[in-house]
Amino acid sequence: MKKFRFGLVFVLFQIISTFSFSQILEPVTWRFSTEKVTETEFNLVFTASIEPKWHLYSQDIPMTPPATTFKFTENKGVVLIGKVTESESIEEYDPNFDIKLKYFAKQAIFKQRVKLLSDAPGEVKGVVEFMSCDDSKCLPPAELEYSFTIGNKTKVLPTETTLNETDKSVVNPVKKIKNQSVNSQETDITGKKASLWGFFFMAFLGGLAAILTPCVFPMIPMTVSFFMNDKESKLKGKLKAIVYGLSIIAIYTLIGSILAVVAGPDIANWLSTHWLPNILFFIIFIVFAASFFGMFEITMPHWLVNTSDQKADQGGFLGTVFMALTLVLVSFSCTGPIVGTILVESAGGQVLKPIIGMFGFSLAFALPFTLFAFFPSWLSGLPKSGGWLNSVKVVLGFLELALGLKFLSVADQTYHWGILDREVYLAFWIVIFFLLGLYLLGKIKFAHDSDVKHISVPRLILSIITFSFVVYLVPGMFGAPLKAISGYTPPMHTHDFDLNAIVRNNTRLSTSNVTVPSDVCETPKFQEKLHLPHGLQGFFDYDQALACAKAQNKPLFIDFTGHGCVNCREMESNVWGDPKVLQLLNDQYVVVALYVDDKTELPENEWITSTYDKKVKKTIGKKFADFQITKFNVNAQPFYVLMGHDGQVLTQPRAYNLNVDEFVKFLETGISNYKSDVSAFSIP
Length: 684
Description:
By secondary structure, the protein is α+β, with helices and mostly antiparallel strands. The chain contains 19 helices and 17 strands.
């Protein structure tokens, strides 16, 4: 009993954790070799190895994104024959650019036929330009230099289709621009984009939590006993148990697959930024929370449950499948809110995410039924059903209530309603988790709860953790940054009473080395709706910021950001808030924040027609999202670019990375290159 309750502590508090990984990615690696076709003709072979889930674009695609391109800069003693050919590509819809594109997965092979003009060795040099993406993000375009030496030592191949790497005289390619991950936010319940592994683990925890609910837990011994009492043999009973578990997994995974097909990748942006789905998700979470509190039960239609139950009574392996379906239907009042939460999290347009989420949930959900059928002696160690099961539901209800507020916050920030500012949001969280702490101590009782005669050690530990979290939240009401949850709360500029800002403004007035907006620059557009963190002065329109940068003779710091971007808020809190970073941004740069999800309508004279999708962009968000894609071939946020006055990018752009020292170096490199008039990165 103690072990189960202690495990519950882990499950309930890990289920609200989200996971993301930021790293330097190099998903495409190249090998160079030669094929001897005849005595004088050879194939230059470019082989790209592509990591799983990533793809490399074909040579035959529109202007955006950049196609894979081979440039031959020097040919000595050889002549090129024809154009570069490529292996068979895949042609599918690409969610990154909202069009149908050709790309390669796993491997791509390109060949250029050349002819040797004399008996002397020939040499070919050049550059391959390419860009790689996965289903949610793209890396900046990269270049690799290559060099081939072609001579008589290359052996003739048995057939032209066989690749024989006999000529190893290729100079190791030098990467001119190192790819850096543009760590886009894979949408979870907070708007944050977490890794698929992290999402799988969270869904798995959800499945474990679902087991410890009143609708499911009592069914474990009852169901297992049925399998172990099979009249034919124990072996057949165990086989049926396996079929039962696999059927549960298949049913839930099918639900995820259907969502993946229905949702599709083309509605990701709409789901993550539009007010309608965010308000709908907020309502769903509130309804689920009310269900867990015992206000009502979310149940499947009785006719559906009865029909499935009748099929299960027929016996055999088909009957076992219907038993699994019956369990799914009967337990829906407890599992529905958890399953719904996972599906809402995954409803961001990614095909794999809902499938992975449902697989993770169902895997955990099916495990006890299968394991206890194989090891029936374990049943004696299970705690008896009781009021503690309802306590699990109530705790989950509090968590659903708190997490649902994030959806309302995203809609509020995107449309500037002003109904859920930071201190209001924190006030709700403080009250919710304070009430959760009281519930764990037995001071609050719901309709289906049993009397708590004494507080167990696990409940005491949970209450201590909960009240400690409440204490941590309280200073946030007065402007404390709360860095641990900065990605989940509204931005600091929505906070009305910020003691840190008051102190910072007083300090700014008393120091002479801090710059203020110059009289030669225009008043920033959209400043009544959009703001920069930490009291920074800056702009929200690219052209206006560039004009100011020229007037002040400073480089431009471009911040591609979004209201619903959790990683952006974490960067602003944990990196921008560093004194050294703030000093560099404030003194050495003109800062412009370009919001790619803002819904504010632009005046008609500021509308633009996209060069990549030919659509008219009428809002702030659509205009600058298009600018990011067409100018930098990236559509993920945060994305930071340091730029000179003539459009030259001063150093490799950066994405989500919480290393403060590296960010300082990034800013200092940009300043140095600006003063030296160096262009370190060319814009297509």
